[in-house]
Amino acid sequence: MDARGQSEVVGVVLLIGITVIGVAVVVIVAGGALETAQGQSAVQRAEQSMSLFDARSALVALGRSDGQSVSMARSEGGSYEVRPDTGRMIVAKETNNTTTEFVNTTLGSVVYERGDTEVAYQGGGVWRSTGAGAEMVSPPEFNYQDATLTLPVIVVAGGADSAVGGPSARVQPESIGDQIFPDASRANPLENGTVTVTVESEYFRGWASFFRQRTTGNVTVDSANETVELDLIARGSGGGFTLEETPLELRGLASDDPIEDLTFDLEPAKNSDFSDLDWSLVADNGGSERFELNLQGANVCNNKQPEVTLEYTDGGSTYAWENNSAFTENGSTYSYSCDADNDPTIHLDLTGPTNLTYQGGSAPVSNNSTGALVDHFLAEMGPNVDLKVLSKGKQDPPGNSGSTDLAASSGSIEYSSSSSRVVTFLHVTKNTVNVTLS
């Protein structure tokens, strides 16, 4: 065979080889794409059937049905499992470094698994996990609105179970409507402290996104322990108090004009006529900010004027206001009364209109009245502020009494809260269902 004939044969062989390789590549790529598409389709069908399962399970868990069955989508290379020992929810209240648990329970789950993708029913919601994270498919049973949290905790119980193909999932009640809070010994409204909802779950990132979407409470994620915690504020109580009962815990202060009433009646100690008065109302939010309103003594019943000073520190700068002639016998903000022995009682209405003079150039606020300043800075320091009284007297005696009789002196406070981060009414039940696959 001459060289020309040999080259033609080689060309044909190369052409056939290229064609075979091309076909193989197409088959491999198309096969991978087809498998991917089939996997995505199977997961989508599992999501749809799990969402239907969610709706049917809610009927049972909330006491509206004695049992429900759902035909699940075909597993298509995956499987369904009942996992009763997975996940945990803890609902608790923290007050003054003391934690009271209302409920601490496993959640359980019903899971469709295909490769590294899971679609799971847990806590009354449906979650999708792809190994790198999780997201919500349908929301759990968790309703937070107008400072009220309604939380029917749904628990999947029974034995571990699994199935392939297109199984039927049967949901039956085991223990429905167990009252957790309120109960015979614990009641609404909640006062003081923080209500925490903690979820430990491999779908914790989905839970975290849900908490952020549905509340403006503080959400903390612990990836190492697959845990998310939601904190909601139980607002402090308003009303009257003696000065022995401070500090007062103000919780969930609204961000605009929160102080509705803040008054004090100061009675002198046995051997004082307030000439040695050194009394302060201090606000502390646990950070770098500090607010203080101070009265320096004088016997108002002898026509002497206490000096009023207000200071606010933001951690870097300090702003100060003063008034040396604020007190009048019938004043709206700073007033006094005298008994038959000419002993004084000082009356403070810290929502009042009496102006204070800014000590500096341009004041950082436009309204320098006492009420506006108190309102502005407590809102600035919120939502959680402790108010305490310091009453040392000019001679700085030991203790916290000084020239003021704290037991005989009184105050009153009322304030508004932001319902988006406060919980006043809590309703928690535990609802256990049994799930089987067949």
From TrEMBL:
Keywords: Membrane, Transmembrane, Transmembrane helix. Pfam families: DUF7289 (PF23960), DUF7308 (PF23985). InterPro entries: DUF7289, DUF7308, Flagellin/pilin_N_arc. The chain crosses the membrane at residues 12-34. Residues 249-363 form the DUF7308 domain. Residues 392-411 are annotated as: Disordered. Residues 398-407 have a biased composition (Polar residues). This is Type IV pilin. It comes from Halobacterium bonnevillei. The lineage of its organism: Archaea, Methanobacteriati, Methanobacteriota, Stenosarchaea group, Halobacteria.
